[in-house]
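Residues and backbone
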Amino acid sequence: MKKENSTKPSEEMRWTQFYAEGYDQILAKTFPRETLWKFIERGILEDNDRHDALVYFGRHIRRSQFIEQVQQWGRVLKGMGLKPGDEMLIFCPTIPESIYVLLAANMVGVVAVLPNLSASPQALAECMSQCQVAFVYDGLEHLIAEPLSRNQFRHVVLMDVTRSMAMPLRMVAGTLNWLKTRKVRHRQTKYMSMDEAVSRFGHYEGELEAPNVEGQTVMVFSSGGTTVQGKAKQIGMSNEAMINMFRCALAFNLTGNPFREGTIAYCPLPLFVCTGFFVLVLAPLFRGMTTHLDPRLNQKQFTKSIMSIRPQITLVPGRFWQGFFHHVEELKAKGKRPDLSFFRFPIMGGEGCTPEALKHINDLMRDCCSPIALTSGYGLSETFSVATVDYQLNKYDKVYSKRAISVGYPFPGVRVGIFDEQGNELGYGQRGEIRILTPALTSGYLNNDELTRKLIHDGWVHSGDYGEMDEDGLVYVYGRMEYHVVGKDGTKAYLFDIANELRQDAAIKESVVCSIKGDFEHPHIVAHLLVQDENEETEEEIICRLDKHMTEWLPEGVRIEGYMLHHGLFEVSIVGKVDRNLYRKIMTGYRIPRDGQLLEVSFSKN
């Protein structure tokens, strides 16, 4: 008879031994029940303009200027007739104006909806169905031109990314931008530039600040990764939940003080990614730090910005860190070892990397005088940013023996447990679903009560991610539970396990395993494989060896039905993660061994 496990790591909370003294006192503090803007504004004022709030393409924006801009856009929103509880759309990358407008909406009680910039037109139309006003980046207006033309939108403000740039860049880029969008602005009187919006509606003289309504959704973020039937989920956040994340962060900050006054953050992530918004914008604003904004999320710009800005804190997926450290290696090969001593909190989040890649990165960080290893983190939009973080001062050596990297200990104020399919909490070293208990909890999915009920049970967030916890409380994330196939004997084969097994081959650097659907009864499992740069084997040799091994390794009735080899790097999405949706859509060009030959196979679309 199987002995029942009585150990509950979420109750033991062994990880608290690694917290700094006094963390519990901060968690026990009573915070004012107020809007997020009121809370943030108090932190901004405490800095007394000693440090810039933002730097954007050479323009330095003081904290006093930041407050003035938020108030100005608050007057614009009120002048447009928006009332507390009304919804408005912000469809724009992270530029100063999008931050001003977002916090202004919070100040006046208007619900700001921030959809995924790469969502389908249908999904975008659904998430903005109740919005009355839209602030839209003019370079993306064409993606939602049809719903914007509907009568529901009283006003559409076209936001350009040049408005806060320093001269002469603003003059050159701004003129080109004006010429590009003048046809759009003249379609109807409801389309206007930001300057026109201020001129027409910025003279409101009544009360600006709306009171906090406890538990009410005030911002709606979009999931950057997980979707339901291909649509990004719209995640509501209340003022209380977002301020509670600050409580957790302040307790965390007692260890090493990574959010230190006068230091620099660098934010290249889109605004709808709430982890980046909190860690790289809100927390620095509150703590007297300066954030450098750059909406260009690409490898070349990221590497260039790290070397020139030298930020203490930044956050991007693993792909960008790997690219950066490839550049570091190139410099070292030329005898130019870069000095990385400026790092205090370099974070890999959203998507990690392989244990082998992380070890290589941390060895380079130590060699280049970084005072800290690369920090892995894990969180959900539904928990407004951080759930776990592997922040360990003066410790470069991590656990590299598992098939996933550690994403760290639960954040102060957060509890994490691993559960089986029956809802029983598992012990240390056992794999199951990661569930999270947090004070920074979503108020629910927008217009989807059924999905909200599936997400939260007894206060626990069901992440849908498969992982484990070791005896110290370090959490390891393997992948999404929903992506699996079942063998003839009922054994589940998770696609992330298949990908990890393929990656053990010496010729393979990274792997993506997908289930693609088409005109066939069952989904087909295919493997996209990134070949090691130095590998000299033929495609036939690699695929035949892998297919033979996987045929023996997989459960009976499960097989990989197509392999595709890639060189260089996998393509990434708008948030910097490997674009798995792209690879799921590839139907042709696969190869499979059959009767001693390597045949090309393709699949039909629905």
In short: The domain at 484-601 is CATH 3.30.300.30 (GMP Synthetase; Chain A, domain 3). The chain has 18 helices and 29 strands.
